[in-house]
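S1.2 Input.
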Amino acid sequence: MSRSHCQLITCSPTVGTGPGENQRRRGVVQALGILAVMIVTCGATCARRQPLTEFAPPPRFDDVPTLAEIIEQVNKSLQIQRLESNTLTISSPEIITNLRGTLRWERPHNFSLEAYPGTRLMGLAFAAGSNEEMFWLQTQMPSPPTLYYARHDEFESQPGPRRILPVSPLWFREALGVVEIDPALSHEGPITRPDGTLEIRSYIPSPRGAYRRHLVLDGRTGVLKQTLLYNHAGRLVATAQQSDHQYYSAVDWSLPHTVDVQLQPDSGPPLAFHVEVGFYLINEPMSNEAGAYQPPDSTGLVTVDLVQANAQLNGAVSLPRYTPHDSGPSAMSHYRIRR
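S1.3 Output.
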């Protein structure tokens, strides 16, 4: 990914380990709950939720399938290219009230989300998004309003513990049912578990070292029921429980409408979210508004580079102090860090 050319408004606070860090973590937790819904899903039609008896996932396996058969079934999700929805609901112990939101997502990295405590008239609660180069999370509460951001490549290659986000937000795509198995990688399974589900363990290379992903599938329908991710040190950092699946014939894949996510940073308590989706608009043409996949105007926001924040927490480097600069509406569409 090439570096962009304009300035990022930088006024990053010192990240420590006291009450200030806890407050920032709470803001990230809330934003991630919203983000979880957004990268999530994809399909091929606009369908309201119906009783599961109408859109129940069809049976796929009569006997225990081979690894090749599971890969073929799971990789049907590759037919999902884009998603749009305005029926999202997020709840979490960290969120005072349930939030509703709208989202747009398309492969490989584009998404945009706005979430509100009730309606748009009540004001924006969170905004989040991603493009080819970077991702961002904008939190309005707790004060001050803060914009967290990172370049994809820098976040994925950063060594050492992650005390704010254990995984990139892009992981939520898999957590929420859009997952693929690369046949070129190393895999174990299928392993038949005591409850009859099937488990596939995959070793996924990364600049930080190999991650281990466990996918738990229904033994008859092949739908994704659980995702577990272990980092390069063998530590469980993210889990997702998927349920309330519905089948979308246009993509021949079943998506969960209810997902429970838990993230475990390298320090501090786990972060938990409950996600429900009313309906999906799948693989339909989207309205291409200008700047839909660009960072928001950072005027009035504290900005925090997550890569540098992690480095400071790890004591790896002495971070530079940033000076605020004026920003126009497109100031963060491309960025350059001032050192």
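S1.4 Remarks. The first helix runs from residue 19 to 40.
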